[in-house]
Design brief:
Elements lengths: L2 H11 L4 H6 L4 H17 L7 H26 L7 H18 L4 H26 L3 H24 L4 E2 L2 H5 L5 H4 L2 E2 L1 H9 L16 E2 H19 L1 H11 L1 H6 L4 H27 L2 E2 L6 H11 L11 H17 L10 H24 L3
Antiparallel strand pairs: 1-4, 2-3
Helix pairs in contact: 3-16, 3-17, 4-11, 4-12, 4-14, 4-15, 4-16, 5-6, 5-7, 5-14, 6-7, 6-14, 11-12, 12-14, 15-16, 15-17
């Protein structure tokens, strides 16, 4: 064997270092950003922010953004966008309220029907993008306005002029599925811990944290499920292939059109899921709910390492990016900073995360 061939063989069998593998992970920038934000609030915020009750306080909005971000991240890895996410939250919430309040359907029927309506709209989004070749940015931007407008028109028509549908809490009260989609879980455990003095309590002995908001549990479960799909299933490989090079993937036998359609459906269902939980928690459906959440979800996915060009990213990164959102959103209330600085913080974190992710990816892959 010649020396040249031996060198080529050595390059092929050379093991990649643990550091190089770590640098290629899309979550790295998000993790660094989370640590910096955590340290910032650790130094500037009231200590109650990081008590059990305080932590659950900022984890709940993080979970709501995060469920949207998981769907957005899968779609972005597949090479597409969905800007109608926030409007879908309002529209699906209205559909859900209509089913449980006006028609009196139980949750076991109303929830699947709501998810079905959202999935159908997601499929329409995907089919328009695929069949026309129009950018998903444009198609879903149109649906952003259309769904928001429909939500406003329908809720005013149904309620006689108001922008909210009330009576949801009363309609679902006593339904056996209600505790799975609203309120807190593990309340008995928290009470037991409080009785033994292991968690903070009020003067009357009741725990300051009464349980874990159910959205947080769903957030973790959905993240784990999405991560499993991405890293352990053929469909996950298809998602990366479709987003990386759709033509090459199609030529290799990947059903690119089907993959992208399914991703649009999943993203819409994630939005409907958030709509259901928020409507049940608030007890009302509101035509303005979910406003600008599409951008927050996409930003969380980008902070988590998803590339705007597709083919790269992770659900875990979106998970961490959402934690940053929740921490900044609620954390500012524990400091002396004006709440209006929230968007400034998010913008700065987004820019730093994108620059950092881009730098690390190029160093790890040898790009110039």
């Amino acid at each position: 064997m010649s020396e040249t061939n031996a060198n080529i063989l050595d390059e092929r069998v050379k093991k990649e270092s643990a550091l190089a593998r770590m640098l290629k992970r899309p979550e790295l920038g998000a993790l660094g950003g989370f640590i910096l934000v955590f340290l910032f609030f650790l130094l500037t915020a009231d200590s109650s922010m990081f008590t059990l009750a305080g932590t659950l306080n900022w984890l709940q909005p993080a979970a709501q953004i995060g469920i949207l971000a998981i769907g957005a991240s899968l779609l972005m890895i597949g090479g597409e966008f969905d800007l109608s996410l926030g409007s879908m939250v309002a529209f699906a919430g209205l559909v859900f309220a209509l089913l449980v309040v006006n028609t009196g359907l139980p949750l076991i029927i109303a929830i699947p029907l709501t998810l079905l309506v959202a999935g159908a709209i997601g499929m329409i989004n995907g089919q328009i993008v695929i069949r026309t070749g129009l950018p998903s940015f444009i198609v879903t931007l149109a649906f952003l306005y259309a769904l928001r407008g429909l939500s406003l028109v329908l809720v005013k028509w149904i309620t006689g002029g108001t922008t909210q549908m009330r009576g949801v809490r009363e309609a679902v009260e006593g339904d056996f599925l209600a505790p799975i989609f609203s309120g807190d879980v593990f309340g008995g455990l928290f009470l037991w811990l409080a009785e033994r003095g292991w968690i903070a309590t009020f003067a009357n002995g009741t725990p300051k944290a009464t349980g874990i908001p159910v959205e947080i549990i769903w957030f973790v479960v959905i993240t784990l499920l999405a991560t499993y799909v991405l890293v352990r299933t053929p469909f996950g490989n298809w998602i990366f292939a479709a987003g990386g090079d759709a033509n090459a993937a199609a030529n290799s036998g990947v059903p690119v059109k089907l993959v992208k359609t399914v991703l649009f459906i999943i993203t819409a269902i994630c939005a409907a899921f958030v709509a259901i939980t928020t409507v049940m928690d608030a007890g009302t459906a509101d035509s303005s709910r979910g406003l600008l959440k599409e951008f927050e979800a996409i930003i969380a996915a980008v902070i988590g390492g998803c590339l705007l060009t597709g083919g790269y990213g992770s659900a875990v990164g979106a998970f961490i990016g959402s934690l940053i959102f929740g921490m900044v959103l609620i954390g500012l209330t524990y400091t002396g900073f004006d709440q209006d600085w929230y968007k400034v913080f998010v913008g700065g974190i987004l820019l730093v995360a994108v620059l950092f992710n881009n730098y690390v990816r190029k160093r790890a892959t040898g790009e110039r």
